[in-house]
Amino acid sequence: MEPPVYVLEFEKPLRELSRQLDELRQRSIETNVDLETEVREIERKIESTRRDIYSNLSSWQKVQIARHPKRPYALDYITAICANFQELHGDRQYKDDQAIIGGTAFFNGDAVMIISQQKGRDPKERILRNFGMPQPEGYRKALRLMRLAEKFRLPVFTFIDTPGAFPGIESEARHVSEAIAVNLREMAMLRTPTISVVVGEGGSGGALGIGVTDRVLILENSYYSVISPEGCAAILWKDGAAAPKAAEALKLSANHLEKLGIVDEVIAEPSGGAHNDPAQAAAALKYALQKHLNDLRALDTEHLLETRYERFRHLGVYEEAGVVRS
To answer: How many CA atoms lie within 13 A of 59 on its CB side?
Structure first.
């Protein structure tokens, strides 16, 4: 039995046309009647509808694509673009957090350190990965691997895909905020090239905990935000149903983030999202990573650190003595 097809609300017109096309082709086979003209007409309509839908996506619709259950996760990209990935476990203090994975690999022949947040495909794996929400030991494991990469002068790639750090009592008891804060400080001073990519959800400090890097990239239908749209809606509108309005207000989509200077490059996805052609999405990601890695390797260590400092120092806008500065 084939797995059920997951269709987003705004994709339903496209799904209906695809159903009509399948029925028309089946009828042609069963009746032995040439329906090629009708088939081509529906194919043209499908292509036109596809362009209309995916070229005019709202911020909320992009959030829905970022959360699509068939969307490639970090391990899918690691398998596609790297060789000989060797996972390293544990934070050497408490336990191994499966929501964050990390280890060494070869990227186009060069040794790199990869750290990523990982969600699960089925219920069992989702529970194992804690739905992609790291606990403090996950961030401490990430920091341990970053320091290892620094020691051996390996570039660091981080893949961001989390709704946020785990907010449970046990996570707070083990000081998740402190663990994230330490990562922010230490990543700012890491003496090796670093690149992060938002491949799905980029939620709050949970994402930022592995995101203070020399370059920040984002896939076209991913998002990066200080809070989820639902959380923002609950605070500002007292109603989680206002999430679409909140998504627009947060300016969390890739095109907004690029205009604001939060990300350095938006990586194009296949039409309809990375899940429609994972191989093409992985190829685009690999190309972007290599391009930015080449640029960073051309910088000496002191220049690398200074450039990283200036990048984050100039984000946002603040007011001083009535004068707005950016």
So the answer is: 22
